[in-house]
## 1
Amino acid sequence: MERLAGVLVEYSTRVGKGDLVCIDTGPAAAPLVHAIWGRVLAAGGHPHLRIDLDGAPELLLREGSDAQLDWVSPVRRAEVERADVRIAIEADVNTRGNTGVAPERQVRAERAREPLRRLHFQRASAGELRAVVTLYPTNAAAQDAAMSLGEYEDFVYHAGLLDRDDPIAEWTALGRAYARLADRLGERREIRVLGDGTDLTLGVAGRTWVPCDGRENFPDGEVFTGPVETQVEGTMRFTYPASYSGRRVSGVELEFRDGEVVRARADQGETFLQEMLALDEGARRAGEFSFGLNDAIAEFTGHTLFDEKIGGTVHLALGASYPESGGKVQSALHWDLVCDLRNGSEVYADGELVYRDGRFLDGLL
Amino acid sequence: MTDPRVDRLAGLLVDYSLALREGQVVRIDGLEASAPLALALYEAALRAGAQPYTNIGLSGLGETLLQHGSDEQLAYLSPIQWEEIERLDALVTIWSEVNTRALSRVDPGRHAAYIAAQRRLSNRRWERISNGEMSWCGTLFPTNAHAQEAEMSLTEYEDFVFAACHVHEDDPASHWRAVSTQLQARASELGAVQGLRVVGPDTDLRLGVDGRTWLAADGRYNMPDGEVFTSPIETETEGEIRYTFPAVYQGREVEDIRLRFEEGRVVNAAAARGNDYLQSLLDMDAGARVVGEVAFGLNYEIDRFTRNILFDEKIGGTMHLALGSGFTQAGGRNTSGLHWDMICDLRREGEVYADGALIWKEGRFLAEPAFEVVESGVRG
């Protein structure tokens, strides 16, 4: 826990004297907040706490009027505008609290908060805001992973390389390797993914591949870009169930034409999938395509922060792009869907085989 | 399952104390231990059409700041906090400590520096409250720590707290509306009085209140509530008073305080325990020796001392006098960094005379107040 706090404050967000540091979480993360609070003070920063009460967001979605769903707290805005650092810690005590909420109400609330999210990403891209998202292990998250809390804690800390002697040195070295891979991929114009139920081609010419080394997500381990908006063609079958706002959809298959989803189905949760695709114009486009590279995460645990980084997977996000990748999709949605490529799958870059069975071929990583 | 009394308390605060209206922005402040009430308030505020959000602190973080923060960090107020205070239409503060003595060993100088910085923010908040731009109510959610101070089990303490707020029965708002009418009539009646004389064990004190406004504390600024108070004329307090309950200031107790006043000022003070602390507070500034508030505690559901001023100052049958700053809304002029409420139990053998006529005996007014609708003021 102390190590995690140390990495978040000293490595991920590099808190310095006078920084206004917004710590955004739920009450369950109290032990980690205490550790971070002490580190921020030691670094000369000003910690600012924003704790969401367990159950309050569900109450708003269930009982709020339209005006209440549309309302964005001026304080939230002030936080996004003023903070130098934001450390968001997921600490759900129930990951399924929103299941009973009407999807259109969830959509409405998402849409209202979209400008804030955009501002957040803008400030982050411009280097004005250093923001990291992490997870504090709770029984709810352990339950999704079908683990005991003790097992899940081990999984989480292992994924962050916090069981190594010097996690910051490990992440720094990984960051260099990811940056090399990103440079190589940046020279390519087209990526084609072939796997079970999957044959998808993405145009990536002129786009930037971004190495993720633990500064914006923790744990981390991916290299992503924003594909050319009109150049996604074919089908992808997503191996793992995907959760969004506390709802789970599984067995998702998407067919793209000219960059847009033209067919979507799911074994479970298809209605919700369709609602989300209809959220806005950008929700039908792939705002992000990414390779998961963290070999300390080997199994699916039902949480995007970890699942999208499983070494040997790729993921595609429906909705908003990250501006730093050159992607231009704007949407209130950003929903990561993960496809496992570890068994008999291949990736071609400009027609050349570069990746097989979940591994880049020699020299790329 | 939620205690129905918690839901009733939330409803009472939203509908009666704050009278929240559609679209009003309300912040709910509390520590994590207050979560059941904070959530119930959030829901009640949503139902009232307001825009609620919670501001939940974690116990222990304040201690870390006070122990390890630099001077700059102790004095820091963020632009977010300043912006927030301008935007609120209403604020609820829920007190719910998990350890009421956690700050006992903090360096007093550092604590004072922190409080001074926070006061800049709370001054602005009080300015907006006084101007009628925002409403505020402070309440308490029972915890073991508060129960321990009161020397009760948590269950007993919950019964005590919820009865004091009158949320152990349906429709507490009706109860408080009736209390409000009573208290305002009493305040109006006391407004005609020129001089009060308080007589009790080792107590014979005269206070001038001519021209001062008595205010009814009727559950809008505190829940529970139940007192009428004013600021007496600064130069006219004469005589002696002995406080039966310990007086607590910033967590430190002083026992068995005796004060003698001449021409409004404390000229002699003694305490059985904590005398040095008492003397140092009296010397804080020129206004610290002057009475800033005199009040009758009239909540008879509160029948015992529990070491919490939210309840103690309202014990039915007591009076309290505060040394230090007065209330401008009451006509008070005394200024001081101190406002220290000291409670005097008059339930066994106390008498109060108004302009020579006995009006209060053994903790009760002798007659019901004559009813008259008046506008009540703001509690500072």
## 2
Amino acid sequence: MGAPLVDFKDLAVSYGPVVALAGVSGSFLPGPTGLLGPNGAGKTTLLKTLLGFLKPDRGSLTAFGLDPAREPLEVRRRIGYMPEVDCHLPGMTAARFVAFAAELSGLPPDEATSRAHEVLYYVGLDEARYRTVDTYSTGMKQRVKLAQALVHDPDLLLLDEPTNGLDPEGREEMLALIRDVATRREMSLILCSHLLRDVESVCERVIVLKQGEIAASGRIDELTGPRRSIYDVRVKGDAAAFLTDLKDHGCEWQEGEDGYRVFMSDGAGPDVVFRIAKECGVQVRHLRPGVESLEDVFLRALGHTGPGSERTATAVGAAVVMGPER
Amino acid sequence: MPIYEQAYRKYEAREALRTVRFWPITREALRLILAKRSFLALLVIGWVPFLGFAIYVWALTQFGQVAEGMASALPRGGAVFAQFFKWQMRLNLLLTTFGGAGLVANDLRTGAILVYLSRPLTRRDYVIGKLSVLLAINLFVTLVPGLLLYGIAIALAPAQFLTWDLAWLGPAVALHAVVLSLALSLPALAVSSLSRSGRVAGLAFFGLLMGLDLVALIVGLIGRWPAAILLSIQACVSALGDALLGAPRDTALAWAYPALVLIAIALGSLAVLRARVRAVEIVR
């Protein structure tokens, strides 16, 4: 593990009265790192500060030992940025567009053209590279965005929601491509996403942002630790008493549209659920075991579990939450 | 084997950052604009006033060989060129509208602005790159034909134009071409940055210039107020052109006033571009 590529200390950025980053400190080490958080957490603000688009109100941020606010050009030439929003030049073929992006990064025209073809081949667009980007599907546009970010061989790749708008197959292909960039090509990258599974499948480390502050950071395996077992439960009877007793036994629960997801205390099994239900005079109508997902772990880190809590819309959960018996 | 595993080459030959970084922006934008046949046709039409004036100068000097004194009918000094630029400006307005409307607006609409600004480029590089597109188009139909017309005038009527006291005329033609091009290009780019639609920006720019022209005309007619020309960009350019080229003036207003108005418009346009060309859109 080398020295941090990006280091930020007490970094505060605001848009007028709206505080986007409230004095955060941390670093991005070489390798793939995830930047997680719900919408409005400050992820994109952090990336844009790193690119020198925004100046911090307070604190410092350095990339490759340089201050992006003072030397933005030197920093940007070493960074490849794949924005979240659609970006292409109307009427331009993919080959021309990527070569143009390379030239803007300072490559000579001949080299830019040569690399554009190579990178388009690499991202799987060799057949379609002479078509205008306007005619591309969403998945192809995402690949062109990745190609233009890669074409100048950056030291650090910033990927802002790279799987946005992709169907499951396209998403898997994009993630495989990003994994390849990170592992086989040994390129450092920051994957900014609200999809925990995307981050988990690519990154070793993660920084979780919540409302402009760092909620958690470190290696994913260390952060998640041993995962707890969970059960999706549907009951009939006095659910309030049942839930209170569950809490007294060290379990956590989460209410969805239709039921409860119960996070068991360490070592506890389904017998605990049945015993508490019996004590409360509640009938268990459905119990389905599951494994605590990374989403559940991070939602807990973000404070989204507990009595009566509900998942945020941005943290897309895979859990099937069953409803109370009516 | 998945296709993405085919090839990826590290690039080690990084050079120092170039000092002239805007050129790829200008070149690509010009290439895209010139790929449109309708625009090429308009560009060709942009040379029609030159042809007309070249024939006019030729005819007067040729008839002069037959009937003595006809060549002297050619207005002395810069009046011919001032007249040429007044005709030319109408076509420049069309060229600027069609060529410049989408220059920034399309980048804002498609998000391409981020492709530019996430590279080792400053916002100034971006604006210079886009402005150079419009300047190139405008100078192609003002500076080039203006100097050619000057060359033709010197060649065909050297007695009238190749004199020491008219040595300033060539530089004045060039300067006026630059003033005219800048006076149209900067506001066009500023208006383009105010919209995400090239069509809306084009209509707004054309409507703005024609509207101001109309207002200046009406105010001038009703109020008989010479300063009314200051309301119109085109009238200001013409007034400044008359002064630069030593042509008979249409107005009694000192040339400094239209010059100041044009400078103010240029600064205002740059301020708009500074506010609008950014990678971060701040919604208040």
